[in-house]
Design a protein that fits this description.
Largest sheet: none
Helix content: over 70%
Strand content: under 5%
Number of strands: 0
Distance between the termini: 25 Å
Order of helices and strands: HHHHHHHHHHH
């Protein structure tokens, strides 16, 4: 893999992680279009996800700090029966929303890696995402500000679908939040905070194999860090674009794009 190809994949990761069009699916599709064949393609995808994970932390740094502090206070609040603060309720919601993906991801990790590293299944998952985004774009959206534990669980179940490359994690979770009546910006905020333990766990579990050489991807440490940086910076730009569309437009536009990308993937598979 050349340096140009690495930079291209990093930009694809950054843009598509925040836009609800599936970063993992687009990485598989981009590698197919560029003719890149990697023995450990999933390891490269996870490494590039580290860049967008850092972007999420930078964007929501005040929320992340509040959640860290709430983690120390929450057990005491429950023990003493005190009313939970906003940060403590948000932390509980993130925990509940993370559980479904953690269980499914750890149980089916090998099966997902085996069956969804080719463009055919990715194309089908993209088509499924297009239908979900189109439905939510027409029916979803409300004025609710707070995510309840019930809502968090349902959004977490939607996140399980997004474990399949081609099924957009942000798309499925933001759309679920809109259908549950959340305001668009609140749905996006919870979606990306929910990505911290989900993607962070995957980066820790798989990233160590890249660093210790057990899952080689043919890149030097410097090249890998460059890819992480580019993914993070392009992710910051994509986040701003997403908020603009959510305020003024509809998820249905992203659904239409996913349909086109899904058809392209299926045609490449044929």
């Amino acid at each position: 893999m050349t340096l140009f190809q690495l930079c291209f994949l990093a930009i694809v990761q950054g843009l598509t992680e925040f836009l609800p069009i599936s970063s993992s699916g687009h990485l598989v599709l981009a590698r197919a279009l560029l003719g890149i064949e990697l023995e450990n393609g999933l390891a490269l995808d996870i490494a590039l996800h580290a860049g967008t994970l850092l972007a999420v932390i930078a964007i929501y740094r005040s929320d992340v700090l509040a959640l860290i502090l709430a983690a120390f206070r929450l057990p005491g609040s429950w023990w003493r029966g005190r009313e939970l603060s906003d940060a403590e309720r948000l932390l509980a919601a993130v925990f509940v929303g993370t559980l479904p993906a953690a269980v499914v991801g750890l149980s089916a990790k090998d099966w997902i890696a085996e069956h969804f590293e080719t463009v055919g299944p990715v194309g089908l998952a993209l088509l499924g995402s297009s239908l979900w985004l189109g439905y939510a774009g027409r029916r979803g959206g409300g004025t609710r500000e707070e995510v309840t534990l019930r809502m968090a669980l349902l959004i977490g179940l939607a996140q399980c679908i997004a474990l399949l490359p081609g099924a957009s994690r942000s798309g499925w979770t933001i759309a679920a939040g809109l259908l549950l009546g959340l305001r668009a910006e609140r749905a996006a905020r919870f979606s990306f905070l929910l990505s911290l333990p989900t993607i962070g766990g995957a980066v820790l579990l798989e990233g160590r194999h890249v660093l210790d050489g057990s899952a080689p991807i043919g890149l030097t440490t410097g090249e890998l860090l460059l890819g992480v940086l580019i993914a993070g910076l392009s992710g910051l730009l994509a986040w701003r674009g997403l908020l603009l569309v959510l305020r003024r437009g509809s998820l249905a536009w992203f659904g239409a794009y996913c349909a086109c990308a899904g058809l392209l993937a299926i045609s490449l598979a044929w």
